[in-house]
Amino acid sequence: MAAFRIGLLGHGTVGSAFEALLESRAEAIEALSGSRPEIAGVLTRSRGDFAEILERSDLIVELIGGVDPAREYVRRSLQAGRHVVTANKQLLSRHGEELWSLAREQAVLLGFEAAVAGVVPVVRVLRDSLAGAHIERIHGIVNGTTNFILSEMTRSGCGYAEALGEAQRLGIAEADPTDDVEGADAAAKMAILARLAFGSPVHIDDVRYEGITGITSDDIAYAHELGLSLKLIGTAERLAGGISVRVHPAFLYGGHPLASVNGAFNAVTVESAAITEITMSGPGAGGSQTASAVLGDVVAALAGTPTLAGPSERLEIVEDVVSAFYVHMEVDDRPGVLAQVAQRFGDTGASIKSVVQQGSGERAQLMLVTHPLPRSALREALEAIAQLEHVLAPPRAISVINEEFV
Ligand SMILES: NC(=O)c1ccc[n+]([C@@H]2O[C@H](COP(=O)([O-])OP(=O)(O)OC[C@H]3O[C@@H](n4cnc5c(N)ncnc54)[C@H](OP(=O)(O)O)[C@@H]3O)[C@@H](O)[C@H]2O)c1
């Protein structure tokens, strides 16, 4: 039987797991597809020559990561008429349109299931299974490291630094966790999900993001009293006038499907009138898990799956989104302070849903949850509240996601 030759770029955590998985599954894939997949060459910084590997391969698996030189290798592979499978969210969130367009021109597959949410098959579900649904909104926990850190802070009551240290000790966080904890990794994944869901080009620069480095264990503990749990949530939604794609910490009520997703797991909730809501969850990273998603795309290429269709429309990015918010204030507990705070929200047309106070006297903690209001109105209200005589420090706000599905 004919061999199907795979050039493997990168042989780190995922690349080496992919080679091992391919070896153990080669026979089953041969039975399924009629071709026996085999590694035609491996490229690392110290091994292999790209041009030679490309020449010998039917398909290139790119597991180097980052933009350069991955972009050049993927481009050259597609131009040479080779299928490409990649797990590289940085590359696709910046240069996806150029590369998908090249793949369409060459009638080859550019597979990227592993670039978002690891082994959770969200790319294929959005692209194929839900192609008939008009998707209105996606909420995702798409970064396992930050979900582990927040889960750990909730479970043990420890602070951010301690939870990050534990994640690093367990190999869940990298030595330099910046991209994960500041939200950039999740932003890249949400750009790709939004592109799939809405058929509109979305670049990572269109995604506003904020990470979890400013979260305190107090935020988590106080909100718990209001029935809320804290997650780093990516949102992609249709709004009047366009779409919004963003990543920030958000509180969820217990009824939300993502509220119970803990540890280094990923989960994505998709909402559409036609389907109500579906949630997919599973390990978001890990060598063998990610390798399995990569191998799934290799099999899809063998089966002749076409690459992603071109954008169907170009939607505007909406900045001023509406949300409910949790607001934390430190106040000098005098009669009338709460009324003054409520008045400042009222001045912007917003109202308060629930309030909790802890302590009394000169340094009381006042936590409240607002009804939904535009982010610009929240900013205005917080600026006015910060000016109040008995508010001791600038108030802090975190989004609250209101939906519950029954
Ligand atoms: N790790 C995960 O759990 C996970 C999950 C989902 C997606 N991903 C994605 O999978 C991809 C690979 O991640 P990884 O964790 O396997 O990375 P990794 O362990 O750092 O491995 C990277 C590999 O690429 C090679 N490489 C780096 N720069 C190169 C260059 N200029 N030329 C040739 N080879 C080069 C490295 O070579 P040397 O061996 O010579 O250093 C190494 O073999 C990334 O896009 C990542 O975002 C990873």
Provide an overview of this structure.
Helix content is 38%, strand content 26%. It has helices at residues 13-33, 50-56, 70-79, 89-106, 122-129, 144-156, 160-169, 178-181, 184-198, 217-225, 287-302, 337-347, 375-386, and strands spanning 3-9, 36-43, 59-62, 83-86, 110-111, 135-141, 208-209, 228-239, 242-253, 265-272, 276-283, 322-331, 352-358, 364-370, 373-374, 396-401. It is of the alpha/beta class and 406 residues long. Strands 6, 7, 8, 9, 10, 11, 12, 13, 14, 15 and 16 form an eleven-stranded mixed β-sheet that branches. The structure holds NADP nicotinamide-adenine-dinucleotide phosphate. The site of NADP nicotinamide-adenine-dinucleotide phosphate (NAP) has 22 residues, from helix 1. NADP nicotinamide-adenine-dinucleotide phosphate (NAP) binds at residues 10-15, 43-46, 63-65, 69, 87-89, 114, 118, 285-286, 290.
Please sum up the structure shown.
The protein has 406 residues and is an alpha/beta fold. Helices cover 38% and strands 26% of the residues.
Topology:
Blueprint: E1 3-9, H1 13-33, E2 36-43, H2 50-56, E3 59-62, H3 70-79, E4 83-86, H4 89-106, E5 110-111, H5 122-129, E6 135-141, H6 144-156, H7 160-169, H8 178-181, H9 184-198, E7 208-209, H10 217-225, E8 228-239, E9 242-253, E10 265-272, E11 276-283, H11 287-302, E12 322-331, H12 337-347, E13 352-358, E14 364-370, E15 373-374, H13 375-386, E16 396-401
Parallel strand pairs: 1-2, 1-3, 3-4, 4-5, 7-9, 9-16
Antiparallel strand pairs: 6-8, 6-10, 8-9, 10-11, 12-14, 12-15, 12-16, 13-14
Helix pairs in contact: 1-11, 3-4, 4-9, 6-7, 12-13
Bound molecules: NADP nicotinamide-adenine-dinucleotide phosphate.
